[in-house]
Amino acid sequence: QVQLQESGPGLVKPSQTLSLTCTVSGGSITTNSYYWNWIRQPPGKGLEWMGAIGYSGRTYDSLFFKSRTSISRDTSKNQFTLQLSSVTPEDTAVYYCVRGYSNSWDYWGQGTQVTVSS
Predict the structure, then answer these.
(1) Is there a contact between 10 and 113 (Cβ–Cβ < 8 Å)?
(2) How far, in Å, CA of 111 to CA of 95, rounded?
(3) CA distance 87 to 17
(4) How many CB atoms are closer than 10 A to CB 83?
(5) Are 69 and 84 in contact, with CB atoms under 8 Å apart?
(6) Coil, strand, or helix at residue 10?
(7) How far apart are CA 61 and CA 69, in angstroms?
(8) Pick from 36, 86, 18: which is nearest to 7 by CA?
């Protein structure tokens, strides 16, 4: 059974960089055909796809975030990370790490609340 667990600060100040880590267990992030995504849901809004890193290490960015995102991985720890720069209160959301496979998102982390406030 694949499990994903987000970790990171719950509170970030405006203009800072948010950094979140997803730890994956029960499967390797380098396994062929899987993509590892970051998705968020601001309060009262729908899901927003932020980007992904594939099994080969190639990254995929969302133009919506205008180059504020950076996704990387540490294969020795079976983790992948999200950095979101220049945060504002509009970046307040629940952040999820999600496994993607064959045009679906099949395993989700429980989500972590991030609040941007001074």
Answers:
(1) yes
(2) 5
(3) 6
(4) 13
(5) yes
(6) coil
(7) 7
(8) 18
Run of H or E including 98: strand 93-101
Q: What are phi and psi of 35, to 5 degrees?
A: -125, 140
First-last CA distance in the chain: 39
User: Cα(105)–Cα(18) distance, rounded to whole angstroms?
Assistant: 23
Do 37 and 97 form a contact (C-beta atoms < 8 A)?
yes
Tokens of 59: 């990254």
Q: What is the pLDDT of residues 25-58, one digit of tens each?
A: 999 999 999 999 999 999 999 999 999 999 999 9
